[in-house]
Design a protein that fits this description.
The chain is built from 9 helices and 8 strands. The chain is globular. Helix 7 links the parallel strand 7 and strand 8. It is an alpha/beta fold. Strands 1-2-4-3-5-6-7-8 form an 8-stranded mixed β-sheet, sandwiched between helices. The mean pLDDT is 97. Helix 1 packs across helix 2.
């Protein structure tokens, strides 16, 4: 991977393929490697940019700003660094929150948007409290509590569970805590959805234990022109559970 100084933080990223720029934004508490299986299915038509969000993977931590908007600013800064004026964005879970924040802040720099296992709704008060409690626990005890709680919820596939268990265990406690606070304080994006004027893709698994399928259906109802793909017997990691179907959906960005 390559690192670039973006907004005072070293952000690690990988570039693959040729074609229209497409940023693949990973979810919590993961990194860019969740896209490894789908990247070869996309790199003939897209110039893929795969960053590690600040505090995850090989990217450094910027403790002063734990906001979803801050992650979006990093993506915009990375695109500016790469001299890319406009790009497609595909966000998984928390990455979808980042993609929506980017679309709100920089609408003229978005060619199209894909939301994978994500949602527009903000957290409930109870969910916010749970995130902050987990963040404090991670800082005090390490990431193992997140490894154990998240692994079975991400996917029922034992192969994927084994992969994400190892992946989460490598993440930085401060990065995880910052992300939990960022998600807890993110704004509701339901008002944003009807204003979007570029191609939109929604992909959701009907067995998602973290973000229920109803959230995907709600976004589709708000976006009648969006391309919607509901994947049967698929959990929260469709890019790993069914990469060919997700790649097919992403190709609708340029059709």
């Amino acid at each position: 991977m390559v690192k670039a100084n973006i907004n005072g933080t070293k952000i690690a990223y990988e570039e693959l393929g040729n074609g229209a720029p497409l940023v693949l934004i990973h979810g919590y508490p993961l990194d860019h490697t969740i896209w490894d299986e789908i990247a070869p299915l996309l790199d003939h038509e897209f110039h893929l940019i795969l960053p590690d969000l600040r505090g995850f993977g090989q990217s450094d931590i910027k403790e002063a700003d734990n906001s979803i908007s801050g992650y979006a600013s990093d993506i915009q800064g990375l695109l500016k660094h790469l001299k890319i004026k406009k790009a497609f964005l595909a966000g998984h879970s928390m990455g979808g929150y980042v993609a929506l924040a980017f679309a709100r802040k920089y609408p003229d720099e978005v060619s199209g948007l894909a939301l994978i296992s994500s949602q527009a709704a903000a957290d409930s008060s109870e969910r916010k409290q749970g995130r902050y409690a987990t963040g404090k626990q991670v800082l005090a005890e390490g990431v193992n509590t997140v490894v154990e709680s998240m692994t079975p919820k991400l996917s029922a596939d034992k192969r994927i569970q084994s992969y994400v268990r190892e992946l989460i265990s490598r993440q930085k406690p401060q990065g995880i805590s910052n992300a939990l606070a960022a998600m807890a304080e993110r704004p509701d994006s339901a008002d944003l959805l009807p204003t979007l004027r570029f191609p939109l893709i929604i992909v959701h698994g009907d067995a998602d234990e973290l973000i229920p399928i109803e959230r995907g259906r709600e976004m589709k109802a708000a976006l009648p022109n969006a391309h919607y793909m509901e994947l049967p017997s698929t959990g929260h990691m469709p890019m790993m559970e069914n990469p060919h179907a997700v790649a097919e959906a992403l190709h609708f960005l340029i059709k």
